[in-house]
Amino acid sequence: MRWQRGLWLFLVPSFGLMTLVLLWPLGYAAYLSTFDYYLGSREMHFVGLANYAELLGEARLWHSLWTTIVIALGSVAAEFALGFVLALALYRLTFSARVFMIFLFLPHIITPVVATLFLKWILTSNWGLLDATFLTFNLNPPDWLGDPIWAKICVILADAWIFTPFVMLVLYAALQTLDQAQIEAASIDGADGWRIVRHIILPSLVPVIVFTVSVRLMDVFRFFDTIYVLTGGGPGTATETITMYTYQLGFQLLQVGKASALGIITLIIVAAIIATFSRVLQRGYGRS
Q1: Homologous superfamily of 50-287 in CATH?
Q2: In 93-128, where does DSSP find H-type helix?
């Protein structure tokens, strides 16, 4: 027991670093959220939970939250579906799997801002690559980034294109750890490919799926760079996520207290969504 207590000393550097870069800023944000404070001002007025009450009463907050949920669920669902199919295809390949994996992983290697600039050039109205291709065949393309619905779809597809390789790589690595004896036994018993995937592969991958989807949900709720470059939150507020709204409050309107309160609200929402998703998925496959 004395030896085990000594091991806690090795956690001190990591805990100190975590406190410095994570816990202290989080605590300071929670502290600022209770003040009416503008960036650059010397005056700070304590308002308690007034910032939270004001935000929760704003229609713009709920609109940005709904937009964030739509984009998050759409992009994560597309990334998981495509990533799982690609990972399973690579797992089934008997040759050149690594070569295909390198090519499929290329979009994730590019910096998201640079990748989004490429996509914006492709999707720009009238003179973009996609519109030029449509017009060549006398087809009327939609306004990809100017129509609210198409703008959401483009944002979802952009995020899926950039981060599907990450999901694919994690799932492909997890597939390498499967018990081949179970799969061979199921095949001998007459189980087809779908039954093997449904009853053997997916239940075995539940911990990895929970981890991957949780990481991607957290990332998408912090979604900023791609939307900022691609649509700027527009047209209007059609693609304004809760992170974009926080940015506008803190760095354009300089309402640091209110922006900090919105950051805390976002943290609570993300934690609740991930906890619910993890519990539902584990219970569902635990019973099957």
Answers
A1: MetI-like (1.10.3720.10)
A2: 97-109, 112-123
Specify whether the CB–CB gap between 120 and 230 falls below 8 A: yes
pLDDT value for 24:
87
Over residues 95-134, the pLDDT tens digits come to: 776 777 777 777 778 888 888 888 888 988 878 888 888 8
If 0-12 CB within 10 Å is exposed, 13-18 middle and 19+ buried, where does residue 23 land? Answer: exposed
First to last CA, the chain: 40
Distance CA 275, CA 17 (A): 26
**Could you write out the DSSP letters of every residue in 225-276?**
HHHHHHTTT-STTTT--HHHHHHIIIIIS-BHHHHHHHHHHHHHHHHHHHHH
Residues in the chain: 288
Q: Which residue has the tokens 């390498």?
A: 176
CB 27 within 8 A of CB 243: no
Listed as ranges, residues in the chain with pLDDT below 50 are 288
